[in-house]
Amino acid sequence: MGMLEGTVALVTGAGRGVGRGIALEMARAGAAVVVNDLGVALKGDGADDASPAEQVVAEIRASGGRAVANHDSVADWDGGCAMVRQAIDAFGRIDAVVNNAGNLRDMLFHKMGPDDFDAVLGVHLRGSFNTSRAAAPIFKEQGSGAFVHMTSTSGLIGNLGQANYSAAKLGVVGLSKSIAIDMQRFGVRSNAVAPFAWTRMVSSIPNETPEQQKRVAGLKKLVAEKIAPFVVALCSDAGKAVTGQIFGVRNNEIYLFSQPRPIRTAHTAEGWTAEAIADRVFDQFANDFYPLHKSGDVFTWDPV
Fold first, then answer.
1. Cβ partners under 8 Å of residue 46, min gap 6
2. CA distance 169 to 287
3. Burial 43-56 (b: 16+ CB within 10 A, else e)
4. Is residue 165 annotated as a catalytic residue, yes or no?
5. Where are the alpha helices (H) located in the chain, listed in sequence order?
6. CA-CA distances (angstroms) from residue 278 to 125, 263, 267, 281, 290?
7. pLDDT at position 39, please?
8. pLDDT at 40 over 90
9. Transmembrane region positions (predicted)?
10. Of the residues 29, 134, 233, 260, which has the fewest C-beta atoms closer than 10 A?
């Protein structure tokens, strides 16, 4: 008996990379899987390959598991609802939603247009809402269910040229926490995971300067399949008490991230004026200001 025996999971963006690894591992753990993938280009527009979802389904079935392919878009409300309905129609229930689908349209903020911003938020943030909201009434009625949303250190810490992606991924954290709070009473949990992995998503990183080449060389050591066991554990009965948290998985390392809390306060009985704030508060807080770190400035050691 696997940890997910008798359960049904929807995994979005599961045709390649991290999503593929999760779908395969969930099937090995006994879950029936709806394998969602559009089969589009990295930017999320235009056809790339319509077969990744079917290929993953074929792998699962060849190993004796159960799976169906889905090609709906998470960015579309009807598409998100259709994925959940397909799980019910094909397997009779749904127990877990893994929001992994993503796209990239990297560029410096002062060059970014509204279409590039909206396209990335549409997949990552609205997409996570669409599929989660579609499953929420079912989870509520059955008194159980697990949401796992993929965030990123680009949102948690920061990265160059990713204002759209960073905003979406930090928004996913807020969405996950709100779901956890709102649905705790129904036995439903929601968590966010920042995956470190060399996939098609990160393979678009520039690789021209020596600094960029060093960064890419480090990223290539990050194995996409390493994310999957943690997601399986979160979605299993063993993870029932875990909700509202932010995790990271980097090869054999697992992180629990902090969440924003006040670290310094300033008070005056007379109330603040702008001049008093400028004179007293900024200097008082300065030692605790966060520098403009990028993700690579924080995770400086080689993955293990």
1. 40
2. 28
3. ebeeebeeebbbbb
4. yes
5. 17-28, 52-62, 77-91, 114-121, 127-142, 153-156, 163-183, 210-219, 228-235, 274-276, 282-285, 295-298
6. 37, 19, 14, 6, 18
7. 81
8. no
9. none
10. 260
pLDDT tens digits, 82-91: 999 999 999 9
Phi then psi dihedrals of residue 217, to 5 deg: -60, -40
Specify the residue for token string 């779901």. Answer: 179
Length of the chain: 304
Tell me the C-alpha to C-alpha distance, in Å, between residue 76 and each of 15, 37, 84, 189.
18, 13, 13, 24
Query: Within 10 Å of residue 204's Cβ, how many Cβ atoms?
Result: 13
- Give the whole-angstrom CA distance, residue 133 versus residue 34: 17
Residue 304's pLDDT is 80
Tokens representing 52? Answer: 């990744």
Please give the single-letter amino acid code of residue 137: P
Residue 153, Cα to own-chain centre: how many angstroms? 10
Out of 117, 165, 230, 247, the active site residue is: 165
The answer to whether the CB of 81 falls within 8 A of the CB of 44 is: no
- Segments making up each domain of the chain, as ranges: 8-259
Nearest partner of 33 among 235, 192, 213, judged by Cα:
235
Looking at residue 200, its amino acid is R
Does the domain at residues 8-259 carry the CATH identifier 3.40.50.720? yes
Asked if 14 and 59 count as a contact pair (C-beta separation under 8 A), the reply is no
Lowest mean pLDDT among 175-189, 195-209, 214-228: 195-209
CA distances from 122 to 8, 69, 184 (A): 25, 22, 26
User: Is beta strand 253-256 parallel, antiparallel or unpaired with respect to 246-250?
Assistant: antiparallel
pLDDT of residue 95: 98
Q: Across the strands, what pairs with 111?
A: none
